[in-house]
């Protein structure tokens, strides 16, 4: 079972796919999500999103000015600015 993750910025989809773990920086500190997590709505702080795909590879993006939510293993991250780290 996987998380369904979507990361979007104001003007484009940055990344979407399935993951086993998502870690994001919020205004209250870092938070991590795995399958079965309770619903959460949080405000993003400027920082990195770390997404671990099911095969163990990682996706890292910088994000700021937005929010994230998780409900029923669907993680949505909406940022004013977001970009994958090369």
Automatic annotation (TrEMBL):
Pfam families attached to this UniProt entry: ATP-synt_DE_N
InterPro entries, per database record: ATP_synth_F1_dsu/esu, ATP_synth_F1_dsu/esu_N, ATPsynth_dsu/esu_N
Protein's cellular compartments: Cell membrane
Bilayer topology annotation: Peripheral membrane protein
Residues covered by the ATP synthase F1 complex delta/epsilon subunit N-terminal domain: 3-82
Keyword tags: ATP synthesis, CF(1), Ion transport, Membrane, Transport
Chief location: membrane
Family membership noted in the UniProt record: Belongs to the ATPase epsilon chain family.
Protein name: ATP synthase F1 complex delta/epsilon subunit N-terminal domain-containing protein
Organism of this sequence: Microbacterium sediminicola
